[in-house]
Write a structure and sequence with these properties.
Largest sheet: 8 strands, mixed, barrel
Helix content: 25-40%
Shape: globular
Oligomer: single chain
Strand content: 5-15%
Distance between the termini: 14 Å
Strand order of the largest sheet: 3-4-5-14-12-11-6-15
Radius of gyration: 29 Å
Length: about 550
């Protein structure tokens, strides 16, 4: 009903805004195209389907159907913008680049009108993808809860501003492209790896036994040639090309750090496997993560917390800069940490842990049935539906099952608590949050898929101090002191903060290069397939 109302309103608008005098021939053709697009009688222009079926007619009605791209210099500028979609990992052909670039030089009003309408449609499409991403992430992940709406602006208004802007590319960069160094760094990385691909890529390193600094092996020449391309290895001074010398050791360590590997300097099977990933695959990896960034990095608050699940890292961002960071542990592949955003509003010091349904069903109940003493050893208690304690000795263990368990299991505060000494709460349907952990040795692993879905933080005390924002009352030392005497104490944040749980398998690094991580949840391929799919468009109708 709402869509019908909008369509009827626009039809009236089209009629009312027709000037009393006769339109020029090109404008008259644009009017006819606009009406046909709006009423659905013909949405094909130059053999291409128009998708912006309300924005485009409304735009032309507002300018009395005058063409927007009649000036050839302005049209050429638009073509360069559309061609530049490739620099964002997008396909210029989604925006009719070849069709428009090859449009016949014809003064016929019908041809001029068709080119103008198709050019406007191309700009709408590209601007939409630049701001929101090509793929609707909710179609890939049912947990996704980020919107694809312009904040406090009408799409037609933004389109009018773009067309009127002195420099179209600058307008799109400022208004619609994700801001900050993260997106720009990935774009730079994409350009660099495409240059590497154009130059022939990199050589393959043969498999074989592990190589350590000081070793001599015929494969060292291939390793050196491989790392000359991406990680600063040199041939200079390599008097013995088969020697694993200090220069090569530095390059190996840099490569390992950039690829989420243990930076032990040993060229083992994992390092060789990462070296032999083709450059085209790395380009695709960057393209997938540019798309993920477009999903998220828009209309952001100045301060937010982001967890990169694939990179096992968390960052506090303030004014587009990293104010705090920490290694984290995330969910095992069969208990994936979900991707979503939610506002954090409070912390809990000395927390209890109420066992979530999945862990209760799959882990705890089988252990209780096998060993009634399990709960006591883990400082866990049973609670009935009214919240009263229940002794395990009073429970008929033969009668309980995953489908018939009328109790809650809670772990009490203390050194055995799975949440450690503090948890950071942004209540959500997944029962997922950030917290401390007793399993601190696991932070030394390169790949940290070790939790049951929540995010274990290596530096929780410093994070608490940052979030509480009072260096006198809530210094790290004061947080430690308060925790030592706490028993499930809630501390409300004066300034609640948005938390983004995201998944990037490539990110820019501080040296202007790109870091790559394993696709631990095998999610990249779905994004790449979505980027290859034909254009789909719904939000601006």
């Amino acid at each position: 009903m709402r869509m019908l109302y909008r369509s009827l309103t626009l039809i009236l608008l089209l009629s009312c805004l027709v000037p009393a005098h006769a339109l020029e021939p090109t404008a008259e053709q644009i009017r006819k195209f606009s009406e046909a697009i709006l009423d659905g009688s013909n949405r094909s222009i130059g053999g291409q389907q128009i998708a912006a079926t309300t924005v485009l007619p409304s735009f032309y009605a507002g300018r009395e159907f005058q063409p927007a791209w009649l000036d050839q210099a302005r049209f050429e500028e638009l073509l360069q913008v559309l061609k530049g979609a490739a620099d964002h990992g997008l396909d210029p052909e989604d925006y009719y680049y070849s069709t428009l670039a090859g449009w016949p030089d014809d003064s016929d009003p019908m041809q001029l009108a068709a080119r103008d309408v198709l050019s406007t449609e191309a700009l709408i499409r590209f601007g939409y993808h630049l701001h929101f991403g090509k793929i609707d992430a909710s179609g890939l992940d049912p947990d996704w809860n980020l919107t694809r709406r312009l904040q406090n602006e009408e799409p037609v208004t933004v389109l009018e501003q773009a067309v009127a802007a002195p420099h179209l590319d600058a307008f799109l960069t400022t208004r619609l492209e994700p801001g900050g160094t993260f997106y720009a760094g990935l774009r730079s990385g994409l350009a660099r790896y495409r240059e590497i691909a154009a130059a022939g890529g990199w050589p393959t390193v043969p498999e074989g036994p592990g190589l350590r600094p000081g070793d001599r092996d015929p494969r060292i020449s291939a390793v050196r040639a491989r790392l000359i391309v991406t990680d600063g290895a040199t041939n200079g001074g390599a008097a013995d090309p088969e020697l694993f010398d200090p220069d090569l050791a530095d390059a190996v360590g840099r490569f390992q750090r950039r690829h989420g590997l243990d930076a032990d300097g040993i060229i083992g099977s994992q390092t060789i496997q990462a070296m032999n990933v083709p450059v085209d695959a790395r380009i695709d990896q960057i393209r997938a993560n540019l798309e993920r960034t477009r999903w998220v990095f828009r209309d952001l608050e100045p301060r937010f917390l982001v967890v990169n699940i694939a990179g096992f890292e968390a960052y506090l961002i303030e004014d587009r800069k990293v104010a705090w960071q920490s290694r984290v542990q995330v969910g095992k592949p069969y208990r994936k940490t979900p991707v979503f955003k939610k506002k954090m509003s409070y912390l809990v010091l000395g927390p209890t842990w109420t066992v979530p349904p999945t862990i209760l069903r799959e882990d705890i109940i089988p252990k209780i049935k096998k060993d009634p003493g399990y709960l006591a050893r883990k400082d866990m208690v049973l609670l009935d539906r009214s919240g009263k304690l229940v002794a395990i000795s009073d429970v008929d263990l033969t009668a309980i099952s995953a489908d018939n368990f009328p109790y809650t299991v809670r772990q009490e505060p203390g050194e055995k608590n799975a949440l450690g000494r503090i948890k950071f709460m942004f209540p959500n349907k997944h029962f997922v949050y950030l917290h401390d952990t007793q399993s601190r040795s696991l932070f030394n692993r390169a790949e940290r898929t070790t939790s049951s879905g929540c995010i274990r933080v290596e530096e929780p005390i410093s994070l608490a101090a940052e979030l509480l924002g009072d260096p006198v009352e809530w210094s790290e030392a004061k947080v430690e002191e308060r925790i030592s005497n706490a028993n499930n104490e809630t501390v409300t944040l004066t300034d609640p903060i948005m938390v983004f749980l995201m998944y990037w398998t490539s990110v820019p690094d501080e040296d202007g290069d790109v870091r790559f991580f394993n696709d631990v949840y095998t999610r990249d391929q779905a994004v790449l397939e979505g980027l290859r799919q034909p254009f789909q468009f719904s939000a601006f109708r």
